[in-house]
Design brief:
single chain, about 180 residues, Rossmann fold, six-stranded parallel β-sheet, two-stranded antiparallel ribbon, 5 helices, about 25% strand, Isochorismatase-like_dom
């Protein structure tokens, strides 16, 4: 039987409309993430909150309101909070050690941003040997600009989820996950 952990990546105030990096669909993504977290708590799965800090940047400033975990998904009890400084949640953090100490072999990922820290986290987890499930409607992103081209957030999100589903694990919706 697999031992599962829910990784709640960067659902911090910075991504809401009052923050420096507002994302499209963040409220809906956070509501779905909260449902996944509540389900995990009932089942006794490990829930790990990951928060980004970016010293010297104009966003995710350590100690700022923007760097705090959003009220929709606050940690409860003794749930771990891992602070990271890079998109990859495993880089220079104790995340892998924590998961290994708990004999975790499957991670379920929710959070932000789909094209950055979610993508990096899923790929790193897969590379480290964890089975991955990404809950696509519990993740959010923003429009991106490359040269003269603006890529709408919906396209950015779909592209990342398609790439993850192609090789890096399952990509499913909240309803399908909760029904299992």
């Amino acid at each position: 039987m697999s031992k599962r952990a829910i990784l709640v990546i960067d659902l911090q105030n910075e991504y809401w409309p009052s923050g420096e990096l507002p994302l499209q669909g963040i409220d809906a993504a956070a509501a779905n993430a909260a449902r996944v977290i509540a389900h995990a708590r009932k089942k006794g799965d490990l829930v790990v909150h990951i928060r980004h800090e970016a010293p010297g940047a104009p966003f995710f400033v350590p100690g700022s309101l923007g760097s705090e975990i959003n009220a929709a998904v606050l940690p409860e009890g003794d749930e771990s909070v891992i602070t990271k400084k890079f998109p990859n949640s495993f880089r220079d953090t104790g995340l892998k050690d924590l998961l290994d100490q708990q004999d975790v072999d499957e991670v379920v990922i929710v959070g932000a941003m789909s094209h950055m820290c979610v993508d990096a986290g899923v790929r790193a987890a897969n590379d480290l040997g964890y089975r991955t499930i990404t809950i696509h409607d519990a993740c959010a992103t923003m429009d991106l600009v490359f040269g003269d081209t603006t890529v709408p957030a919906a396209h950015v999100h779909a592209s990342i989820m398609a790439a993850l589903a192609m090789f890096y694990g399952e990509v499913i919706g909240t309803e399908e996950f909760l029904a299992r």
